[in-house]
Amino acid sequence: MKIYLVIIFHALFALSLAQAQHFNLGIKGGLNFYTIHNNNNVKFDPITDVHFGLLGHIHLDRQYAIQPELVYSAQGAQISSNSKIMLKYINFPVLFQYMFDNGFRLQAGPQVGFLLNAKSKINSTSTDVDQNFESVDVGLSAGIGYVHPPSGIGFDLRYNAGLSNINVPKTTVKSTNNGLQLGLFYLFNHKS
After folding, report:
1. Is the peptide bond before 169 cis (omega within 30 degrees of 0)?
2. Among positive and negative, which fits the CA dihedral 159, 164, 170, 172?
3. What are 161-165's contacts with CB under 8 Å, separation 24+?
4. What are the phi and psi torsion angles at 19 (to 5°)?
5. I want to staple 26 with a disulfide (CB 3.0 to 4.6 A). Which of 19, 58, 165, 187 is the partner?
């Protein structure tokens, strides 16, 4: 299943690149504010961690672009004052962007994440809990961004909403990854 999703992602990327007016490669990084949302009204507090990776910005015309990304993302939730779940993912968002002439952009699209590892941490004791979480996470991303056209430096703010139940085994409780990401990016050889 994982390999098929990666192949589809790369095929979409190659197709977009072939049709694009121009393409920019970039790097990005920033902060995550994530939690795990449960449909049984049990609330967890968010944790703050990091994300970083690569992005491709593909102009389809002056106002529309596609932005596939490959991002390491540290997520999870604060269960109590001395207990938290830490989930590490490689995420593949593909964002469709509407760009304004002043550098601002609206963006939304699907995201597929692959779990690298999962740990439960109580005080200073950490335990592997990979078997309790699905290896693939599907979600949607939406947000805003800005790029300073002459420099290629920009920021984005997005909300990632999980769609798939990350629990193993499946129970009546559905848990999803949900969080805000605040990031900075740099586009090499940016053209406005």
Report:
1. yes
2. positive
3. 162/37, 162/137, 162/138, 163/138, 163/139, 164/134, 164/136, 164/137, 164/138, 164/139, 165/134
4. -95, -5
5. 187
How high is the pLDDT of residue 172? Answer: 82
In Å, how far from its chain's centre is CA 174? 20
Full DSSP string of 50-118? EEEEEEEEEESSSSEEEEEEEEEEEEEEEEETTEEEEEEEEEEEEEEEEE-TTSEEEEEEEEEEEEEEE
Q: What is the pLDDT of residue 192?
A: 57
Whole-number pLDDT of residue 6: 58
Report yes or no: 162 and 122 within 8 Å, Cβ to Cβ.
Answer: no
Name which of 90, 66, 70, 86 is nearest 78 in CA terms: 86
| β partners of residue 86 | 76, 119
Q: Which of 97, 93, 105 is nearest to 160 (CA)?
A: 93
pLDDT value of residue 149? 86
User: Which of 144, 134, 55 lies closest to 89, judged by CA?
Assistant: 134
pTM of model > 0.85: yes
Q: Is 164 helix (H, G, I), strand (E, B) or coil?
A: coil
Mean pLDDT of each 10-residue bin along the chain, 192 residues long? 57 55 88 96 94 93 93 96 96 96 95 96 94 95 95 96 92 92 92 62
Strands 125-128 and 104-122: antiparallel
The predicted pLDDT at position 3 comes to 55
